[in-house]
Design goal:
Length: 455
């Protein structure tokens, strides 16, 4: 879709600004709060403590999102990127937290302190490597970029389908009412996007979800009881749970940061493409990686798990044509407000899964389509066809059949557990073998712009 707001343009009114900012909240909220919910549940925190952990990550994500989009000095991509907790850290976090908790006699606080300590020290890996993005960029020519962006869409599409059907493990999974609800949101989003004018088109995701909320209410699928159980005001406390530093805890998180960094590289390049931003130099990419590391380091002080880029928001940009970083700064401000006033966040958290799924299928599918569009710039000879085919197959293999990795050493399975990372590693390796460094460097010198119109 043609851009209606470019990266450095602002919405015309506060009302339009809020509406467009909320679209990014709807797209990312579930992903942001899932990680602390999983940690809280596994470690045995009560509901009040769980709510506080959610508020902490919302506030930290909001602040880091603002810095990422606005940019401060050499930090930040200055692109419309929302930052939030990353699923890559769930596996190592649970193993570290449960081990530390057991040593402390089952203390949830001791377990979470170990997670935060590993998060802080592990972030130094990303901060250090953020200074080498020029070398990293060299191994990301268009063929690898296409693989990464396509896999971003393909590998998370299964999550969207689960939401669409009612949520993984739900008793009414795949019920007619869930399918109808999801399809309604999907059709409204697509219809407004293609045939709406002005704000109806650029705000298509927002309006689709709002209609989904209303329909869910009349279908009896909207439970608002949580609003009475949520705190009215919350303020974060520095080092609430303390921190534990052990080298054996840091190593798994360092590996997870490497995985997250590969994904963040792909996310940033994809976001730049759909936002039609020139990426000739490495300043934006370097700023994005560094900000992710610094944000995670500081966030740990305020009891938050690592924050990384969210690919969902690239989908929002490509669907709506709104690439304004000021809109995403607004999203960051809204996340902070949701953390400080938990009842507002709770209203978003009760979004029925099919409502989110209906919008997510459109967003994630569009990200995959953007990746496919990148391949228009690639000469599809025998070697390049093999690179694309094997890389995407490898990424989807570990996504669809994660048990494939169950007998591998933990540090290897942690790296390969992300389909995006697996596909990227295969693509980079095969491209080096087939096309060589010299060809890559030539490709890198070209400023290849990806045409996103019509997607």
């Amino acid at each position: 879709m043609a851009l209606v707001l470019r990266v450095d343009e602002k919405p015309k009114s506060i009302g339009e600004w809020l509406l467009l900012s909320f679209q990014h909240i709807f797209a990312s909220f579930s992903g942001i709060v899932t990680v602390p919910i999983i940690f809280a549940s596994a470690l045995g925190f009560d509901k009040i403590q769980t709510g506080e952990m959610i508020a902490d990550i919302l506030i930290v994500s909001g602040i880091v999102t603002i810095f990422q989009s606005k940019g401060v000095g050499f930090l930040g991509s200055r692109l419309p990127q929302v930052m939030g907790s990353n699923f890559t850290f769930i596996g190592p976090g649970l193993s570290i937290g449960l081990a530390a908790s057991a040593i402390a006699g089952g203390s949830p606080e001791a377990g979470y302190a170990a997670i935060l300590g590993a998060s802080m020290l592990g972030s130094l890996v990303q901060i250090f490597l953020g200074g080498f993005t020029g070398k990293i960029r060299r191994i990301f020519p268009p063929i690898v970029q296409g693989i990464v962006v396509s896999l971003i869409g393909f590998t998370i599409l299964g999550v969207a389908v689960d939401w669409f059907a009612g949520g993984h493990g739900a008793e009414d999974y795949g019920s007619i009412t869930n399918i109808v609800l999801g399809l309604t949101v999907m059709f409204i989003t697509i219809g407004l996007n293609q045939y709406g004018k002005g704000i109806l088109s650029s705000g298509s995701i927002f309006f689709g979800i709002v209609v989904g909320y209303l329909l869910a209410f009349f279908m009896g699928k909207l439970d608002l009881s949580i609003l009475t159980q949520t705190q009215s005001i919350y303020f974060p406390t520095l080092l609430k749970y303390g921190m534990t530093f052990k080298i054996e805890y840091v190593f798994p998180f360092a590996i997870a940061y490497l995985v997250a960094m590969v994904e963040a590289t792909g996310d940033t390049l994809a976001c730049a493409k759909v936002s039609e931003v020139d990426m000739k130099d490495n300043k934006r990419l370097s700023g994005s990686i560094l900000l992710g590391g610094v944000g995670s380091f500081v966030g740990a002080l305020f009891n938050a798990t690592p924050t990384t880029t969210f690919s969902q928001n690239t989908g929002v940009v490509s669907i709506t044509g709104v690439a304004s970083r000021y809109v995403v700064m607004g999203s960051g401000a809204l996340l902070i407000v949701m953390g400080l006033i938990p009842k507002i966040g709770a209203l978003v958290s009760v979004m029925p899964q099919p409502v989110l799924g209906g919008a997510a299928i459109v967003m994630f599918g569009t990200i995959a389509a953007v990746g496919i569009g990148v391949f228009q710039e690639v000469e599809f000879n025998n070697g390049n066809m093999l690179i694309v085919g094997i890389s995407i197959s490898a990424g989807l293999a570990v996504t669809l059949r994660p048990q494939l990795l169950q007998n591998l050493p933990t540090f290897i399975s942690t790296i390969l557990s992300s389909g995006i990372t697996t596909g990227t590693l295969v693509g980079v390796t095969m491209n080096l073998l087939f096309n060589g460094v010299e060809k890559q460097s030539d490709v890198e010198k070209d400023n290849i712009e990806i045409e996103t119109e019509g997607i």
